[in-house]
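Please check this:
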Amino acid sequence: MYSLIIMIITSLEQGLIFAVLAMGVFLTYKVLDIADLSVEGTFPMGAFVFAKFITMGASPIVSTLLSFGFGTLAGLLTGILYIKLKIKPLLAGILTMTVLYSINLRINGKANIPLFSYSSIFDIGPALAVLIVIVLLIKIILDLFLKTETGYLLVATGDNETLVRALGANSSKYKIIGLMVANGFVGLSGALMAQIQGFADITMGSSIIVIALASIIIGDTIGKNSSKIKNTTRAILGALAYKIIGGAAIELGLEPTDLKAISALIVVIFIAYNNLTADYLGIRNKRGGESRAKNSKFIKEF
């Protein structure tokens, strides 16, 4: 019973950290429709930047915020490769990820930095409570940002880039802004993960994009029948559900080394479920004539 409680608390803590990651990737994957693999370099970069500044004597809050700032620079690099140099977004992300691998090693000079003897943002109070406050704050900020003129044009760029250009706005600028904000949140997530686990490691970003996509896909599945659930809320719920599923799998006897396979399997299951459901609804709508508005929206999205 005790081990089950510990598993749930740990899953919730890591799920909230991955919720920050998922909200960042949501901007590129769902809003801009860009496959940004640079997050696999940005996530450990956030951890290494935090480690660098905390070991230099900076406060945990300042070090965490700096991780966000350096994350935006990683997004800027991807944006320059994609927009200015006309490199395909997938390749631009891979190139950024490759560059960041070397930069991350340069930041501290080694691949693993222990942080147990340094203060962290979780010294303020219980880790779970602190993370809930941080995630809610980020959600509110992101929701408010998407309601600004810049946010509306960012969403419009992903929906209809031609329309944005017709309005006289520079769609390329909003793509770069989206990449910067997204990678900023990813870097922040990496810094939080380094603090809660007590070290920064170069391999932290391995397959992190799968976790982000799994969180988004699960969140979409949870909220597919309700248009009132915001996308940021779906990302949070998806990240929590993902970690609880993974934690339950370990509790049932699977090895921790199986986690990557579990992650991939979760993504496959939920994508297959969404696709099969969409196909089923499409067949019913074709045979039955008029469809409900919520089903039409669901099919269009997936």
Notes: The first helix runs from residue 2 to 31. DSSP finds twelve helices and two strands in the chain. The mean pLDDT is 86.
